[in-house]
């Protein structure tokens, strides 16, 4: 920590903030339940995770990971096909691990969230009606029974770090729990459909990667994220982000 020239604000909104101070990340969270889940999940996960340096609620201190993020939503990924395949292999290792002792989202809650968010989008005319209704129809294919596995719950590209072609660590485990394996794969490839083949190759079985369900999760994830993003100061309409993901479904791609 000596000789630190500046503090970097990684992300900050009303609920959480993450600061980087030298080689240490300080996570401040108003909900200690999320931090409890994060610490417990990292201890159980069979993939590389940041070292927990100390915890003094509401602050969690984590060591920085080597390498760089697999990508940033809305930006091209510079990672190699091998690195994307390694991300798929890491997801497979996690999904094959014993279930965590706490539950995950249930179908009824997900269906209610989809109803509520689509209603809000329509009422506030945030997106065109046909864009919402088309994607909602697609999203409903994700709402089917699944065999629960140990999921990260927010396996976006910014949370997967690579060093060359290897996974150096996975961060932000506060949404981890029992869930649908295809949800993790969908979040990982959201906005990067062209990388799905590499992820599937690393995951190890094309039979386990149902493209229709992954497309459904792309739509559901995007529809249910727009309001939160807007209310927390992010732009889901930025190129390559959630609204573009929804538009791609209108083109049938």
From TrEMBL:
> Which residues fall in a coiled-coil region?
none
Q: What is this protein called?
A: Phosphotransferase enzyme family protein
Name the keywords, alphabetized: Transferase
**InterPro entries recorded for this chain?**
AGP_Transferase (IPR051678), Aminoglycoside_PTrfase (IPR002575), Kinase-like_dom_sf (IPR011009)
Going by the entry's taxonomy, the superkingdom of the source organism is recorded as Bacteria
Q: Which GO terms describe its molecular function?
A: transferase activity
Under the heading PANTHER family, the entry gives: AMINOGLYCOSIDE PHOSPHOTRANSFERASE DOMAIN-CONTAINING PROTEIN-RELATED (PTHR21310:SF40), AMINOGLYCOSIDE PHOSPHOTRANSFERASE-RELATED-RELATED (PTHR21310)
Q: Which SUPFAM superfamilies match?
A: Protein kinase-like (PK-like)
Q: What is the lineage of its organism?
A: Bacteria, Bacillati, Actinomycetota, Actinomycetes, Kitasatosporales
Instruction: Please state every residue range assigned to the domain named Aminoglycoside phosphotransferase.
Output: 41-217
């Amino acid at each position: 920590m000596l000789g630190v020239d500046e503090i970097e604000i990684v992300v900050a909104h009303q609920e959480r903030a993450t600061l980087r101070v030298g080689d240490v990340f300080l996570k401040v969270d108003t909900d200690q339940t999320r931090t409890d889940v994060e610490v417990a999940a990292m201890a159980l996960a069979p993939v590389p995770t940041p070292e927990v340096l100390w915890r003094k609620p509401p602050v969690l201190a984590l060591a920085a990971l080597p390498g760089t993020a697999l990508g940033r939503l809305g930006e091209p990924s510079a990672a190699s096909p091998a690195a994307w395949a390694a991300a798929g292999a890491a997801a497979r290792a996690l999904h094959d691990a014993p279930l965590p002792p706490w539950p995950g989202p249930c179908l009824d809650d997900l269906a209610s969230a989809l109803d509520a968010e689509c209603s809000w989008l329509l009422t506030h005319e945030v997106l065109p009606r046909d864009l919402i209704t088309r994607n909602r129809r697609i999203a409903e294919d994700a709402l089917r029974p699944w065999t629960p596995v140990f999921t990260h719950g927010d396996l976006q590209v910014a949370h997967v770090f690579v060093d060359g072609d290897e996974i150096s660590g996975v961060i932000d485990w506060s949404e981890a729990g029992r869930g649908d394996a295809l949800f993790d794969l969908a979040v990982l490839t959201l906005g990067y459909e062209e990388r799905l083949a590499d992820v599937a190759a690393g995951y190890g079985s094309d039979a386990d990667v149902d493209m229709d369900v992954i497309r459904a999760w792309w739509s559901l994830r995007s529809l249910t994220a727009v309001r939160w993003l807007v209310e927390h100061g992010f732009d889901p309409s930025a190129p390559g982000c959630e609204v573009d993901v929804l538009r791609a479904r209108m083109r049938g791609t």
